[in-house]
Each structure stands twice: as structure tokens, then as C-alpha cells.
Amino acid sequence: MEVVSTNTANTATSLEIPGYRILKKINQGGMSTVYLAIQRSVGRQVALKVMSPVLNADPVFSERFQREANIVGQLSHPNIVGIHDIGRYRSLNYIAMDYMPGGSVSDRLSEGSIDPLEALNIIRQIATALDHAHGKGYVHRDLKPENILFREDGSAVLTDFGVARAIARTTRMTSTGMVVGTPHYMSPEQARGTAIDGRADLYSLGVVFYEMLAGAVPFQADEAVAIAIKHLTDPIPKLPARHSLYQSLIDRFLAKDPEQRFQRGLDVVDAIDQLIATLAGKPSTQATQLNNTSVRVSSLLRALLMTLYGTLSDQIAAAWARWRDKPLHENHPRAEQATIMRIHQVIQQAPPRKRRQWLFGGLVSVSLVFGWMLFSLIGYKLQWQSGSSLLDSASDYTASLLVPEQAPAAVPKTPLVAAAAPSEPEPEQEAPQAPLQQSIEPPAPLEEIPTTDTPVETARTEETEPETEESSDTIPSEEGTAAIKPVVETPKYRLTVQPRPRDARVRVMNINPRYRPGILLEPGKYDLEVSRPGYTTLRRWMEIKDSDLTVPVTLERAYYPGKKIRSPLPDGGTGPQMVVIGAGSFTMGNDQRDASSPAHRVTIGKPFAISTYEITFDEYDRYAKATDAALPGDAGWGRGDRPVINVSWRDARNYARWLSGQTGRRYRLASEAEWEYAARGGVSYPFWWGGSEARGKANCRRGCSSEFNGLFSYSSAPVGHYQANRFGLFDTAGNVAEWVEDCYLNGYGQSRNDGQPVVVDKCELRSVRGGSMREPLDNISSDYRTGLSEHTVSKTVGFRVVMELE
């Protein structure tokens, strides 16, 4: 074992963790210390997070630290920290995770505010990570700058799931107003102490985004309680003026009502992509390259130059017209203000160096414009291209740089079409008209255009024919009638979504109106989302064709690992407490034991729930009384919350079948693979606690120092008397051995690698796992197994059950 001493703040720290070479201390907080280490088995650098010894003294924190770490290990996403190993050594809980050499958002904030485009990039990546985690049923609960780290390539990674969540479940606000957590980033519902979902994380992400732009958190106070009140009552603060472009994002992030916020991480991604697409003049699908400057200096200068020239030319032309006492006709809408505003926004987003270059270029351009003023005067008299035309060219060119291709529809050049779009003219209403020097696009087919020998005037004056409000900017009725085709109203059909559960939230993501049952929609494809806390969100495309559409949707329960479940019984009671075990792979068996060899890889393909405790006398007696089954004896040790004993394999199966009938869920005995996978608790050691020291860990005959075992006597312990493993299961080692479903064979020669039980015709023995209080330490390991006749009843054998998840 190599030990490296580290010295931080003149305090030398030596640490030993088997399988790791500690290099240095990276960070230290109140709950844990993080070290840079080498994982010897694969030679990679890892961040080794070791829980504070103060918290390690509390078995609740210790168990939850390991269990939550294992849950995070089941999240697989490029923007969520990867966990390689969890374990416990000499009362120290540790997690080995990806090493992030790029520091944290907090580190970057210490150097000042973060560039807006960089901030958008970070927020976008973390939003995708949160969407993945929320889809799996996890809520981070403690999102803050310190928990957003960077890989060597600069990508952002979300870390620190689990520990904050465990603390949130076990602590309350103290008398001094301090909360274990981070009040500055806490959502209103967290501050209120009500139930939360993933939208609380999105609120916290919005606080981080605000801080990255403004350099400070939005709500500040000296006391945690005062901060919480501000989250609940204060209006959403405004960003500095230079960042006003992002205020709409902040308003949605920090809405007090979760219903008014972004509803999921992908909504954040969509909003950011649309914003970047508008700034960059690219389709939103290309907006992921946020780190590149989207507008070249030369293009911006050209756009600025053309805009300034067009504006000055117009002013000169107007002055000339006033001097001649002749009105100047303006036939085109103006866009110079919008153009300059967009250029200003892009310049504000640029790095300081580029900003100076652009401003210098702008000054040079202005100087050149004044040199052109004389040519403008002459050009107006000689009927050169007007300043209005140049202004339109400048606006169009700038828009092509800064606005997506489809955007011109937002700046119509055809008042005729815009006026006609809402409705058809009334029967006696004069057809809309427009000046003929505007062209209607697309033009009508040649054969549809009426011909006339009469010249048409291009403008009307007060002396020839007074203009009315309806015809001030219209063309003669014949041309208007030929160019405008009757507006045919698109048929609409009713959409009705029938969700189960009935109170699930239904949204149609690609329309603006809020969904309501029977909403009228045009034919087309629609993005449907149905969600409810505790259930897996469903999102899919549907198509309305030529009739009303009714969509039945049944959501699946979100059974995240570690979730506790109790099924109600008809008599008002509940079934045994179950804990969800996530899908995964592990090495089953032990090559050092004939009965448990060969060791082989097994994959549990889907999650399942297993009883947290061994089935107790209280639970079994309820079944026996309901079915007139024989009550098993308790060996004088007591009933109640002690594990049931003196039951055969068939008795155990009958209990599971009865429970299925009472609850409508499928209960059964565990397979050997499921049992061992759950008993190991995510570790490869023989015992779930890691080492061989078992004092205070289990009830066994020799090696456990159990208070329930004396020199000449022994007994079972009440369930839950000892600490749970990392999956939340109690008493998988010792206390009573447990029946499982499989037929017992000596060795794993016929075992399966998919976790299913071994089934043999005319099976003589059934597998028993976990060892009992009568056996020595070596026989209560996770891999130990033996076989008994299915008719055997013993005071050392009980069972636990599995519930299949929908």
C-alpha cells in the first residue's frame, strides 16, 4: 500500500484506500474531501471522494452516501459525472468518479462574470443532463456553481447527486435560520418545504445562469430565512442592460409558479437554440456550435456601412425635397432601427478585442459616409438609386446575416397580402389596393393577369381623387382581384388525450395554445408530452389527418432505484415494504467455493423490487389467518417484527401468491441471481460492508460478536436491527437464511446469465441463501449457498419476496 501525504493549510493528511494511490487533495468541504488518485486496477486518474469522518459516525448518512452514489452510477450521460467504484474501508465511505481537471463554474465566477455565449453553452449542456436524470426519476436538489465541473475538453458536467438529497431528507432548518444546503439556489417550493420535481432543479439552473451573466445571485440577504423569503416573494430581478437579450430566459427559469417555468431540460435546450439561431442567422438545428463567432467582422462593417449610407441618403433627399417644397413619397417600410439594434446586440456579445475592432471599423465607415454626401445630393437630382432603396438593400443584407432565412415573412414588403390574410373582403367592400410600383410575389400566372390599353398612374394626388382609409395603399381592384385568391379556411379537428393517471399533465409542445380536451387543431403532426410526478414521462409524435383524434395514454410508474413501495391490502393494511433495485450486471459466485463456482457474469435486465426486510411474523400471520394456514412456531424468540421461521419453500411461495391476489401486483420468491445482486449492494466483496470485520454488522455464530448469540444459546434479531447494505436491504448476511426460487445444484454449471432462476424437472433441493445466526462468518457471505428439501421447516430459515415492476 502506497500512502502519499498531502499538506493543506499546514495540516498533513495521510489516507489509505485499497486499490488506489492517493496523489493529492483536490478539495475539502463540510461533508467530504476529494482526492486525486490513481485506480490501480486500470491505471486511470480518478477523483476519490471520501465522506467526512464526522458524518461517517452516523450510520444513516453512511448508508445513504453509498446508496445514493450507486444510484448515480446508473445514470449514463456525457454531462453527468461517471462513477467507477463505491466502497467502505476502515469506516470511511468513498466514491471513485471521473476526474475533472477544468475546475468548476464557481472557479470561473471568481474571476468575474462569464461570457454570455459561454454561459448559454454551459446551461444547455447541464439542461440535457437534468432532462436525462429527471427522466430516470431523480431530482438533484442542490444544483449550484460548485457542482458544475469541466472536463479537459471544456464540456460541462453535473456532479454531486445524492449527498445533498440525503441531507434534505434528514435535516430541518435550525433555530439560527441555517439550512443544510444552498439557500441562494433553492427553488420557492424547496424554501416552502413542499413536494418538488425536476422543475426545482431548472429554477436552480436559472439562478446559476443569472449569476454567470450578472456576477451575483439574484436574491441576497444575510440570513438563510431571509433568502428563502426573497425566493418566495421578491419579483424576478432584471439583468444588466447589456444582457437584456436573455431576460426572457431568466423570467421562465425563475418563475415562482413551477407551471410557468421551463417544464423539462429539453425545453431549455430548445429555447437556447432558438435564441442562438436568431443571433447567428442560422437554423436552430445548427445552433449547437455556441463557441464560434457567427458574424464576420467584414460582414458587420458592410452591413453597418450600407445602413448608415442609406439613412444619410434619405435624410439628404428629404432635405432636398423640403427645400423644393415638394413632398417625398415613401413606399417602403423602414428597418434601420431594427438593423442597428441587432448589430448592437451582436457587438455586445463579442469579446472585447473584437468589439474594439468593430468600433474602429465603424468610425472609419462613418468618415467615408460623409465623403459620399456630395455624391448623394448629385445622385438624387440625377435619379440615381434612392437612399430608400439602399436602405432596403442594407436591411435585407443585414437580415440575411442576423436572421434565419424564413424570417423575411416577419417584415412583409406586401401590405396587400398582410391586409388580406385575416379574412376575405365583405361582399360590398372594395377590393384591397396597393401602389403599382410594388410587386406582388409570387406573381399570378400570365393568363390570369387582365390586360388594358389604358395607362395606369403610379400615384394619386388630392387633385385627382381623394384617398380613403381603405384604399390609401392599395392597387386598383382588377389587379387586386387577379392577384389575390380566395382564402379557404383550413379545417380543424378535435384532439382529446385520455391520460392514466387522469391527473397527468398533457402538453402539445409545438403549438402556442395550452392544451385542453377537445382542442381544435389543423391537420398535421404534433409533439405530445404526458407527465406526472412518480411516472415516466411519455413524449411522442402523433398525426391529425381528416378526423377528430382521441389518444389514450397510460404512463408507467417511475421506479427509480432506492424507491420504497408498499402495496395496500383490502383489510386496510399494507404489504411488506419493498425497495427498487435497478437493472445492472455483476459477477456472481466465488471460484474459491465448489458450490458457488464458476464465478460468472450475470446481467439483470430490468429493475425489480425486493422486500427491504425478511418477511416478519406480523406479515406472515396476516396471511395465515386470512387463509387458515398453520401458524409457524417462533422457537420462543418472539413474533412481531422478528423474521418468520419454520416455513417451508412451499409455504413461502404460497405467501407470495396470496400477496399477489390481495394487491394485484405479482409477488414471488427471488431468483438466486436477483438475491445475490441485491445482497451484494453493488460491491464485489464477499460482504456488502467491504472488509472482513463484521462486529456490529450481522447476527452470526462466530465472527460477528452479536448480542443475540451467546456461548450456549442463539436467537434471531428483530428485522432492521443491523445496518442496511448500499441498496437499502437489511439482514442479507446472517440472522435467518432465505429461501429462493431456484433448484439447487452443486455449482453453477447450468446457471443462466440473464438472472432467471434455474428450473429442473423433479427438483430435489431448493436453494437457500445468506446463512443464518447459527453459522460462522464465512457462511454468511453474499456468495454462500446451500440446498434444502422444499418441505423442510427450520428455525434458521425464513424468506423475503420480490415484486415485479410494471
Q: How would you characterize this protein structure?
A:
- The chain has five domains: 6-98, Phosphorylase Kinase, domain 1; 105-286, Transferase(Phosphotransferase), domain 1 (Orthogonal Bundle); 297-405, no CATH class; 493-554; 560-806, paralog of FGE (formylglycine-generating enzyme).
- The strands form eight sheets. The protein has a five-stranded antiparallel β-sheet.
- It is built from 19 helices and 26 strands.
- Helix 4 (116-135) runs antiparallel to helix 7 (198-214), helix 11 (297-323) packs antiparallel against helix 14 (387-402) and helix 12 (336-349) packs parallel to helix 14.
- The relative contact order is 0.06.
- It has 806 residues and is α+β, with helices and mostly antiparallel strands.
- A hairpin with a 3-residue loop joins strand 3 (20-28) and strand 4.
- Mean pLDDT is 77; it is low at 1-13, 163-181, 282-299, 326-341, 380-392 and 394-482.
- The protein starts with 5 loop residues before the first strand and ends with a strand.
